[in-house]
Design a protein that fits this description.
Order of helices and strands: EHEEEEEEEHHHHHEEEEEHEHEEEHHH
Helix content: 25-40%
Oligomer: single chain
Distance between the termini: 46 Å
Length: 431
């Protein structure tokens, strides 16, 4: 926002230029921009009216992409007001840009991670609400088409996603080994639930699957090569439950605790996985997508299938379960002698659910079952690692299972395959 002239605050980018530039090919200044619903125009000819569709693909720079005139401009007593763009979004974008850079280069013990975490979450939460799709969602929720009221609501609920995302399992996946890179859309904070098909009621119009559904993943491309993925802890611990069940402690507006030591890194996405991520991005866009290369706009042309539920055998965005452990209670002591505590799902000690023996027993059993299934699918080497449990630069995290432990998982999975209906379940998810 710095350096903008007053009039430029009326040309509103709902996906900021600084963010778009992270997805340009080296040395390039333009995207391949796809309109998923090109307008039809009718012109008069000597033989009568003739209808044409506008071109669906253009080569545009970031200044032209994902922007509308006066999207955030309000009118007070006949005077145009650009304060929301200039000051509210300006501050969020400036801090969000630095946070995106920080997490794109995230490594163990990265300086500034605590401050960057807060700025990134706030930016992402607002980014999800400020797009045409997000504003249409707000309008439906508030039951008003009054732009000023909807923008005020956006500011009031700007942190509505932050508590749930804070308590997710975070992955930073890497696409550097894939010839195809990540694309972006007009709604870049993308939500995917394998049971919420693009034509389902959960995905119609401006709707997204609820981030509180256990199987809902949220992802956000950080650059051409880096993808940030959030997965509900309750889904990682029990991916055998109803995908549309609501996670424990679903309240949106509350405090939450986060440990950056649990961020998973090192996952290398294959070409096929990147194509599927790009396909999801395209199907969850509102109208526009953009890519560094034209062929990236059409991932479906190179995919074996487009079955929403079967991507990655239904586990495309799942974190590495073998680095996850039960528990998760956090107790904090302060200098003044006071203390605070959060359960594994953010409950406070006086709340129901802070201690839940039945839930812990069920999740502990299902997590071990899932670890065995994952090991049988991926082999002894982990798909990603985190830096918890005493890991450091001098003592890096374990990246694979021993031969004996892997054999143990294979034996456990063989037993699990004998469960009634288990082979049929896996066949249904198999590519």
């Amino acid at each position: 926002m710095a350096g903008k002239k007053a009039g430029q605050f009326r040309h509103n980018h709902y996906v900021p230029e600084w963010y778009q530039k992270r997805f340009l090919m080296p040395g390039e200044t333009r995207f391949h921009h796809l309109d998923l619903a090109p307008e039809k125009i009718t012109v008069a000819t000597a033989k009568g009216p003739k209808t044409y569709s506008r071109n669906e693909v253009h080569e545009w720079g970031p200044d032209m992409c994902f922007a509308e005139e006066d999207l955030y401009t309000t009118n007070w007593a006949g005077t145009a007001n650009t304060d929301i763009e200039q000051f509210f979004f300006g501050d969020i974008d400036d801090k969000g840009r630095k946070a995106a850079e920080l997490f794109s280069a995230f490594e163990y013990d990265h300086p500034g991670i605590n401050e960057g975490f807060h700025h990134l979450l706030r930016y992402m939460s607002v980014q999800k609400l400020r797009t045409p799709k997000g504003l249409a969602f707000l309008s439906a929720v508030a039951r008003t088409n009054n732009k000023a009221l909807n923008l005020l609501l956006l500011q009031r609920i700007q942190s509505m996603h932050c508590a749930i995302w804070t308590e997710c399992i975070w992955q930073i996946a890497d696409c550097s080994q894939s010839p195809t890179k990540l694309i972006i859309s007009d709604h870049p904070v993308t939500v995917y639930n394998r049971e919420c098909f693009p034509m389902s009621r959960y995905c119609s119009g401006s709707q997204d699957p609820d981030i509180r559904f256990v199987a809902t993943h949220t992802y956000f491309p950080l650059s051409l090569d880096k993808l940030l993925i959030f997965t509900n802890k309750s889904w990682l611990r029990d991916p055998y439950q109803n995908a549309l069940a609501v996670r424990p402690n679903p309240d949106l507006f509350r405090g939450a605790m986060f440990s950056w030591l649990d961020i998973q890194t090192g996952r290398k996405l294959t070409e096929d996985e990147v194509l599927k991520v790009n396909y999801i991005t395209k199907k969850r866009a509102y109208r526009y997508i953009a890519a560094g290369k034209r062929e990236w706009l059409y991932p479906e042309r190179r995919m074996k299938h487009d079955h929403w539920r079967k991507f990655g055998d239904g586990l495309l965005l799942m974190p590495e379960p073998r680095h996850h452990h039960m528990g998760g209670e956090i107790i904090i002591g302060y200098k003044d002698g006071s203390s605070d505590a959060f359960g594994p799902y953010g409950h406070k000690p006086w709340q129901k659910g802070y201690k839940d023996g039945n839930r812990e027993a069920r999740e502990s059993s299902s997590l071990e079952r899932f670890k065995a299934e994952w090991a049988a699918k991926h082999g002894p080497r982990y798909t990603a690692v985190d830096w918890g449990f005493g890991a450091s630069r001098d003592n890096p995290p374990r990246s694979s299972d021993s031969k004996d432990f892997h054999q143990h998982y294979l034996e456990e999975d063989a037993v699990n395959l004998k469960r009634p209906g288990e082979r049929a379940r896996r066949r249904r998810l198999k590519e």
